[in-house]
Amino acid sequence: MSQPLSPDEVALVIQGRKILKAKDFDRNTDIKTLCEAAGISRKTGYQRAQKLMEPAVSEEQSIYAEIEQLRAEHEALKRRFDDVRFENEGRKIAWEIHEVDKLLAEKKSTTAKRKRKRR
To answer: pTM of this prediction?
Structure first.
């Protein structure tokens, strides 16, 4: 079985068939006939086709490279998040051990008593 086509390749095939139909060519027309109709050699036709595909291949490679970079950044961010979460849990435990919440609550209540209403 042949390799599956990518969505971009399917779009190119559809576009090619539309062009053939618009120019009154049979969809099974061979490359030699198409090149003769365009006034170029078969070799030139294949060279131009190759040039059209090169940007797509290089773009695809750059996208894969960017995906790999994003995956690496994601892993680094996950490690940093785990470290920060661990630190925060340690701080919460320390606050509970040293009863910092109670101390803060006492400070708030003492400052509230000092305020007097002025008339």
So the answer is: 0.40
